[in-house]
Automatic annotation (TrEMBL):
This protein's name: DUF3079 domain-containing protein
Pfam families reported for this sequence: DUF3079
Classification via InterPro entries: DUF3079
């Protein structure tokens, strides 16, 4: 069973969020060759979990962000 994903951790920069191991940022054990994966809060702010992924494009209709 996967661990519950924290919505707003106290220090997200200390952990790699790329898999269910949640390794320390300096101890990446998954071995996928990548660097530390950021928590969504670090990229999109503390309200990232309430964002629905839709916005208005220049055409004036609500569409998925990838369609803009």
């Amino acid at each position: 069973m996967a661990k519950k994903f924290p919505l707003n951790p106290a220090h997200p920069e200390r952990i790699c969020w790329g898999c269910d191991r949640y390794c320390a940022a300096d101890d990446l054990r998954c071995g996928n060759g990548a660097g530390r994966t950021q928590h969504p809060m670090e990229s999109w702010g503390e309200d990232w979990a309430t964002w629905e992924g839709e916005e208005e494009c220049s055409a004036g209709k609500a569409v998925a962000q990838a369609d803009c």
